[in-house]
Amino acid sequence: MKVLVTGARGMLGSAVATALDARGDEVTLLQRGSTGLAMREVLGDVTDSRVVTQACAGMDAVIHLAAKVSVVGEWSEFERVNVFGTQQLIAAARSSGVSRFVHVSSPSVAHAGEPLVGVDAEPADPDHAQGHYARSKAMAEVLALRSGAPGFDVVAVRPHLVWGQGDTQLVGRIVQRASDGRLVLIDGGTALIDSTYVDNAADALIAALDRAPAVSGEAFVVSNGEPRTVAELLTRICRAVGAPAPTRSVPASVATIAGRAVEGAWSRLGREDEPPMTRFLAEQLSTAHWFDQRRTRQLLQWTPRVTLDAGFERLAHFVRPASSGEHAGLGSFTVARTTRNDPKPGGSG
Predict the structure, then answer these.
(1) Is 301 domain-assigned?
(2) Residue 56, domain member (yes or no)
(3) Cα–Cα distances in Å, from 243 out to 37, 237, 250, 300, 346?
């Protein structure tokens, strides 16, 4: 197929584009800056109708990862990129004759703050989603699924906490906080959560593309299906990259109060850098969220091929210095500010 991938500058988008190319699909990339991948690129913003029309021309399918991802920022910018940008892309895809559209969403679209224990993909809920990102992604998922029609199959996929080598988002943030001595556990890190190794998430998105005619109109949560405690997940990632594991813990109530105060300060100062704590982060690190993967695996005809333990080994190998000097080292995990058209790594946040 001729497939347009948006947001391929990010870890997951790059993995999807590379996997599609490797199996023989003709891939076009849409993002604001060059990826460096040896594929056709259309540079521009997903909110620009001229650009998205050019990118969609002649395509059979679209995998849409581009989004504004942050815990700070004005609502208007989240709405412009995540909602209006998705709307523009869908309109261009339909008018160009695209027949399959995979919308990359997030489990946070259906998360109102209560624990998610062994649940399936519940309906996206813009009214109760927590924070600008989750609310805007919930709105985008709703409009994407409603746009489905005969000859235009739409599937929403919600990868959960995607991580892997070269990850400047989840792993990058963990490394940064650990290196600064700011990585703490909340309520001892006992909350049980799912995560997804990047290769598995990429495979799931491609499976959704292939299965789109059979599962159009559906939303799927994707994870490794191996829930771990927050403490174990953070510790294993820190050990893999050579960063100090967290040893301190604070009560969730204290973290929530601190998050509210920090959010207020960041808003008053107009800061756009990553705050040390937010109410959403406190909730995510202290609340269970893991998912029943049986429906996802059955309908997408997909199963993870890389276990979490194997993923930790790959992460360590990527960072570990070698005599050849080919490995990246810890410096590869510097945190990149996420702006327009940069894809979410699939987390619940």
Answers:
(1) yes
(2) yes
(3) 30, 8, 20, 37, 23
N- to C-terminal Cα separation, the chain: 32
**Which of 74, 67, 77, 73 shows the shortest CA–CA distance to 7?**
67
Counting the structural domains of the chain, the total is: 1
Residue 74, SS3 per DSSP = coil
What is the C-alpha separation between 4 and 29, in angstroms, rounded?
A: 6
Both tokens assigned to 137: 């992604």
Does some domain include residue 342? no
DSSP-assigned states of every residue in 293-341: -HHHHHHHT---SS-HHHHHHHHHHHHS--TT--S--GGGGPPPPP-TT
Tokens of 134: 């989750």
Rounded Cα–Cα distance for residues 93 and 49 (Å): 11
Q: Could you say which of 78, 101, 133, 290 is catalytic?
A: 133
**Once rounded to an integer, what is the mean pLDDT over residues 15-29?**
97
Is 197 among the catalytic positions?
no
**pLDDT by residue (tens digit) across 86-114?**
999 999 999 999 999 999 999 999 987 78
Q: What percent of the chain has pLDDT over 70?
A: 91
Domain residue limits at 319? 2-333
Q: Does residue 340 form part of some domain?
A: no
Q: Is residue 98 within 8 Å of residue 152, measured between CB atoms? A: yes
CATH number for the domain that contains residue 249: 3.40.50.720
Q: Determine whether 275 is exposed, middle or buried from the number of CB atoms within 10 Å of its CB (0-12, 13-18, 19+).
A: middle
pTM as predicted: 0.90
Q: Are 58 and 2 in contact, with CB atoms under 8 Å apart? A: yes
**Separation CA 345–CA 183 (nearest Å):** 20
Taking residue 42's Cβ as centre, other Cβ atoms within 10 Å add up to: 16
Q: How much of the chain is in helix, strand and coil states, percent to nearest 5?
A: 45, 15, 40
Question: Using CA atoms, how far apart are residues 29 and 227, in angstroms rounded to an integer?
Answer: 33
296-342 pLDDT, tens per residue? 999 999 999 999 999 999 999 887 654 344 444 444 554 443 333 44
* Predicted pLDDT at 321: 52
